[in-house]
């Protein structure tokens, strides 16, 4: 069953290309050996399955999740603004690889305002990324917020927000969810890096 599902995911990736040719080339096996695997007459070895999943960037989580099992996936580290593109793309890949269904509910424990709400070209969105960069990057030089320009990641963030809004999500908020950003605004305002009018727009 798992081999059939893996082959189905590979077919999605390769389009009109020959599945047998692809498998043969990647695993360095003969065409006949590849055909035996694609026709399910022979099974992939563990190493072969991993090699194919790695090559086509297919998450194996979807093959091991069940009603009694939770798979945790760590996001990639973000240490500079250029890493944001990879971060958003990886989160998009997580959504695409989840076995989503109409009966599934996603629970989001919100220690901060869910970043899905700040995936837009607003002052709030820019401020959250600004704070994020200063918190995570020890080499980040504190510059005035007005001079900060995040990279253009609209294509990824737009699709990511759309994916999130399509799901049945229950968000768990508490007082800290809102107070954390209030403290951030206050901190940068008191340091002089955030101007009063900018702070007021973000608060609104």
Strand content: under 5%
Largest sheet: number of strands, sense, barrel closure: 2 strands, parallel
Coarse shape: elongated
Radius of gyration: 22 Å
Strand order of the largest sheet: 1-2
Helix content: 40-55%
Task: Tell me the number of helical segments per DSSP (H or I, 4 or more residues long).
Answer: 10
β-strand number: 2
Give the SSE layout.
Layout: H1 2-14, H2 19-27, H3 31-38, H4 46-55, H5 61-64, H6 83-97, E1 106-109, H7 123-136, H8 154-166, E2 169-172, H9 175-190, H10 196-203
Parallel strand pairs: 1-2
Helix pairs in contact: 2-3, 6-8, 9-10
Structural overview:
The protein is mainly alpha-helical. It has ten helices and two strands; from the N terminus they run ααααααβααβαα. It has a two-stranded parallel ribbon.
Summarize the structure.
This protein is mainly alpha-helical.
Distinctive features:
single chain, 204 residues, 2 strands, elongated
């Amino acid at each position: 069953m798992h081999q059939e599902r893996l082959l189905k995911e590979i077919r999605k990736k390769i389009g009109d290309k020959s599945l047998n040719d692809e498998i043969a080339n990647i695993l360095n096996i003969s065409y006949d050996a590849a055909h035996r695997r694609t026709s399910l007459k022979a099974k992939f070895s563990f190493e072969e399955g991993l090699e194919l999943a790695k090559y086509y960037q297919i998450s194996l989580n979807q093959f091991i999740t069940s009603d009694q099992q939770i798979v945790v996936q760590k996001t990639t580290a973000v240490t500079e603004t250029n890493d944001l593109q990879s971060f958003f793309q990886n989160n998009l890949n997580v959504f695409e690889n989840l076995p989503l269904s109409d009966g599934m509910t996603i629970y989001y424990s919100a220690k901060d305002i869910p970043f899905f709400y700040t995936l837009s070209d607003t002052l709030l969105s820019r401020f959250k990324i600004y704070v994020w960069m200063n918190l995570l990057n020890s080499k980040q030089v504190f510059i005035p917020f007005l001079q900060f320009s995040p990279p253009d990641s609209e294509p990824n963030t737009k699709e990511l927000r759309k994916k999130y809004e399509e799901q049945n999500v229950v968000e768990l908020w508490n007082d800290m969810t809102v107070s954390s950003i209030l403290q951030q605004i206050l901190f940068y305002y008191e340091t002089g890096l955030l101007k009063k009018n900018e702070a007021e727009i973000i608060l609104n």
